[in-house]
Structures
1.
Amino acid sequence: MVFTNKRRLQYLSWLTLLGMSAIGIVLIHYLQQKGVRDTMLGGKKYYLQLLAGLFFGSLAALLGVLLVNGRRFRSLRTFFEDMIGEINPSLFDILFYSFCASVGEEVLFRAGVQPLIGIWPTAVLFVLLHGYINPANINLTIYGLFLVAISAGFGYLFKFFGLFSAMVAHFVYDVSMFCVLKYAYRRNMEAGTAV
């Protein structure tokens, strides 16, 4: 079971990286009628984009960890930990999944969709498509609303710094959350509290 889930996640990661990037490039070229190269490589100097992305991604990850570690979110945290535990990703897997998501999703949503509909509508669309807004699960919905704000932050990074800064922030957030949840799952397994 782990093998098939891990393999499926690898395929989805490649699809995210290549497919979403391709759709984003088409949106940039045909609907925005902008230069793809300028959109992808433009913005502030790369070291500023890197610093902005590292700062925002780290802050977002810290807030995300604090949120899911709150008492109210125990069932949500357990759900995420079990999902990570079932996949049992290595550090290489975590880096690969996070890289594919940060590049593919940011090219599509920030560079491709955001200039067409705006920062906040793009953030809401991003979170809705990930399935984090669910009226039947209030804790998941609260986490989803938190992710709307984080996604909007990625949007502002793109607007004020460049696409690379949004990719870096997204990558840092994903790697951090993966690692924290994997560590928590492993700790619970060793303590005998995980199912």
Note: The chain has eight helices and no strands.
2.
Amino acid sequence: MSGEVKKSSKTQENVILIGQKPVMNYVTATLVQFNGGSPEVILKARGKAITRAVDTAEILRNRFLKDVKVKGVQIGSEAITIEGQTKNVSTVEIVLSK
């Protein structure tokens, strides 16, 4: 997963994909989305990046935007095939709203 900011074409919600970059990069990307007028931002992560997504949400809520609330959290898993072996990878979506 990358740290790119993408807009979903069907619902026009802002989605930030959490990857390997430092947490503050994702906090900044989320701040840009909220300051740009977005009422809601979704942080998506899988595997080891899940902790980075949680850290991003908490840093944003506790240090930068006190009025941002966690609207919802969805968890799941994806089957990924690596070198002929199928493994399940955990996923999380954290919905933040102003």
Note: Helices lie at 23-35, 50-64.
